[in-house]
Amino acid sequence: MDNQEKLPPEAFDDVPRRHLSALLDTIVPASEDGTMLSAQEMDFPSYLLSQAADFLADLKRILVHFDDDFPDLPLAERVALVQTFAESDAQMFNALVFRVYDCYYQDDRVRTLIGARPGPPFPGGHVIIPGDLSSLETVKTRGKGYRR
Amino acid sequence: MNTSSNHDPVDVLIIGAGASGAAIAWNLTETRMRILCLEQGDWMTPSKYPTNSQNWEAQQFGAYHIDPNVRGLETDYPINNQDSPIDVLNFNGVGGSTIVYAAHFPRLHPSDFKVKTLDGVADDWPISYDDLDPYFLQNDRIMGVSGLAGDPMYPPKDLPLPPLPIGMVGEVVAKGFDRLGWHWWPSDAAILSQPYEGRDKCLNLNPCSSGCAQGAKSSTDITYWPQAIRSGVELRTRCRVREVTVNEHGMADGVIYYDADGHECFQKAEVVIMACNGVGTPRILLNSKSPQFPDGLANRSGLVGKNLMFHPVGVVRGIFEERLDTHKGPQGSCILSKEFYETDPDRDFVRGYNMQVARGAAGPLATAFQGFRTGDIPWGPGHHEKFHQRFDHTVNVLALCEDLPEECNRVTLDPDLVDSDGIPAPKITYRLSENSRKMLAHGLARGEEVMRAAGAKEIQKVDLLRSAGWHLLGTARMGNDPTRSVVNSWGRSHDVKNLFIVDGSIFVTGGGVNPTSTIQALALYIGDKIKENLANLFDD
After folding, report:
1. Residue B15: exposed, middle, or buried by beta-carbon count in 10 A (0-12, 13-18, 19+)?
2. Chain B residue with minimum CA distance to A48
3. Is A128 in contact with B168 (Cβ distance < 8 A)?
4. A121 closest CB neighbour out of B56, B58, B154
5. Residue ranges in chain B whose pLDDT is less than 50
6. Cβ contacts (< 8 Å) between B341 and chain A: which residues?
7. Which residues in B lie closer than 8 A to residue A27 (C-beta atoms)?
8. How far does B392 lie from chain A, in Å, by closest CA?
9. For chain B, is the Cβ count within 10 Å smaller at the N or the C terminus?
C-alpha cells in the first residue's frame, strides 16, 4: 500500500539549499547542550525524493516566503519569520512540520539519542518486563463482581 | 451496464471476510455446502506492513491510517461523518478490521445481555452470556487469545495462552488502582504470548494498528481463513457488493457486485450472510431496494441502520517522571479496570465503562507531531526538552463507555457521496446521549484519580476522542419481535428467511468492552444454529 512516487535527484536542483537548511534548523534546532542534532543534519533531500515526493512542490512554494538573508539571521529572528508564515498558512505549515519530524525521527542517530531502537521495529522487536501481578491476589479477594 | 453471471450458483454466499465472515465460513465448512465469500479488499502482505520499514510511523498517517476517509484506498468506501462527533474507523481487506485492530479481546459481561431486566433501559438480548459461553472459548482457541484466568468480574473462563507482559506501564498504573482499592486485571488479547498453532509469539513491536508483521496478532486472514479455505471455502477478493437481490417469492437469490475491473456481476446463492459490520451491512441492505422491499431489504421494521452504537471514549494522559517503555509492547492490550462497569444507583448514569490502560501507541513521530498539533510540544527552541518529557513517559487511560441504543443514531445512504463503483456511501447521524456524557465525565474524573494515584506529575485530557469509531453496533438488531428487530435470536432476517446477519449490527446493546470477541462468538453460534436447522432452515 506504499505507492509513494519516487523522484530523481535532479528534481531537487532548483530548491534553494541554504534556505532549506536554515528552515530545517529553525523547526528543529540542535539542543542547547549539543546532544540532540539539528534537523539540518538530516539528509532531507533524499528523504523527500524517496518518501515524500508529493511534498516537493509545496516545499518550493514555502521557501519562496523567505528572503535572501533568511539563512544568515540568528535563530530567534528566523523563528519569528517562520511563526509569521505558520500563522499565514497553517495547513501548509502543518504539512511542513510533519515532513520535518518524519525525516528527523526516523534517523537512526536521533532514534538512538532518544532511547528508541534504530531501524524498523520488525524483526528485532522489543523486550519488556513481565510486570508484577502479585497484587491480583488482593483483587481476587473482592469476590464476584459481575451480575447475571 | 450489462451484468455478467458466469459463476456457478453457490449454497452460501458470505459478504465480507472480516471477523465474523471468517468465523462463520469456517463454522459452516463441515456442512460440505458450496460456500463463497466476497470481499471488496485484497489479501494482505505482512512483509509490507509498516513495521518492516524505517518510515513505519509515517505510513500510519497515510496508507495504513485507521480512518478510511484518510486512507482513501481504492478498496475503501467513503463515509460521511459530518453529523457525528465520532468518526467511523475500519479496514477493508481479508481480515477486515482485525488487520488494524489493537486486538484487545474482552467478552461482553453476563449483565450486558439483560440490561432491561437488570437496569430498566434499552432491551434484553434474546440470548444470554451462557448461550455464547462455549463459542467464546472455541473462538479464543482458533484466534489464539492470551489472558489470565480468575478475573472476579467474569464467570470462570479458560484462556488458551498466558497473559502478555504488562510491562512497566501496567505495573505503575496497577499500583494506582491498588492504592485506590479498585479492580484491575491484565487484558485479554488476541495476541500470542507464546508460539501457537504455527505462529510465533509477540515481539512487542507496538503499533498493532497497522498490521502485525510478526503474525502474532490474531487477524482472521491468518487464523480462520487458511483453515476455511483448506476446507473448501472460496474467497473472492476485490468484489464489492452493491445489493442483495430477491426473487418473486421475496427470498434472497444472490448479489450484484463489481469485480476488480469494475464489471457488474451477478452471483446466485441459496443463502446470503451479511458480515460487513454495523455500517457496511445496513449500507448494503438499504441499497437493496425492490418492489417487495421498497425501504431496503429486511427492513419492514424500519430499523435497518437505526440504533447505531459506538463506544464513546474519553482519554486521560498521565505524564510520569520515569521512563516507562510506553513505545514497547502491544499498544492497546495492557491492563484494564472494571471497577465502574456495572450500574450503581448512586451514580447519575446507568450502565458503565471499562478503563483501559494503553501503552501509548506513540513512537517518536507521533509523539512529536501530536504534541505539535495540541500545542504541547513546540517546534523550534524548546522542542527537545519537551519532547524528552513526553516520549516514553506518557500513559493513556481510556474510559470506554457503554452507549445505549437510540433510533436517532443511525446509518443512512448519503444522497451524493459514492464509492469508486458509484455505490452510495454511508452517512452517519449520531449524537451523544446525556447518559453517555455523564458516564464520560465520570470516567475522565476517575482516570485522573488513578493517574494521580499512580504518580503522574501532569495530566492531560481528551473529553471525547473523535477517532474512536471502531465499534459499530446495533444497526440490524436481533430480537424475537419482528416489529422491534431485524433478525431473530439466531441471526436470520425476520423478513427474508434465507438472509442472515452475523456481525456487530445485530447487537441489541453494546456493553462497555471491545466487541470483536463477542461478534465472533455470535457468528459461531449462528453457524451452529444454521446447521441445527438445516432441514427446515427457511420455515417460520
Report:
1. buried
2. B55
3. yes
4. B56
5. none
6. 145
7. 379-380
8. 9
9. C
Q: How far is B59 from chain A (nearest CA, A)?
A: 8
pLDDT above 60 (res A3): no
* Cα angle A104, A3, A108; round to 5: 20
Q: Is residue A46 part of a domain?
A: yes
**Torsion angle of alpha carbons B315, B319, B322, B324, nearest 10°?**
20
- Which value does ipTM take for this structure? 0.95
Q: 3-state DSSP call for residue B281?
A: helix
**CB-nearest partner of A125 from B170, B203, B341:** B203
Give residue A4's pLDDT: 62
Cis peptide leading into residue B163 (ω within 30°): no
Q: Which of B45, B51, B54, B385 is most worth mutating to test chain A (most A CB atoms within 10 A of its CB)?
A: B54
Give the helix/strand (H/E) hosting B286: helix B277-287
> How does pLDDT run across A97-148, given as a tens digit for each residue?
999 999 999 999 999 999 999 999 999 999 999 999 999 999 999 889 999 8
Tell me which residue range forms the domain holding A76: 16-118
| Nearest residue to B184 via CA among B165, B168, B170, B169 | B170
In a domain, A127, yes or no: no
- Nearest chain A residue to B165 by CA distance is A130
| Helices H / strands E in chain B, number of each | 12, 16
Domains of chain B: 10-163+188-309+420-427+472-536 (3.50.50.60)
Q: How many CB pairs under 8 A join A and B?
A: 178
Which residues of B are less than 8 Å from A31 in CB distance? 384-385
Q: What is the DSSP string of B333-357?
A: -SEEE-TT-S--TTSSSSS-EEEEE
Nearest to B63 among A2, A52, A105 (CB): A2
pLDDT at A2 over 70: no
Say if CB B144 and CB B28 are below 8 A apart: no
Domain count, chain A: 1
DSSP B291: S
Contact flag B63-A98 (C-beta cutoff 8 Å): no
Q: B152, A94: Cβ pair inside 8 Å? A: no
Whether A28 is covered by a domain: the verdict is yes
Whether B226 contacts B145, CB under 8 Å: no
Residue A29 belongs to a domain? yes
Distance CA B187, CA B181 (A): 18
> What single DSSP character describes residue B469?
B
Residue A1 pLDDT level (bands cut at 50, 70, 90)? very low
What pLDDT, on the 0 to 100 scale, is given for residue B1?
A: 55
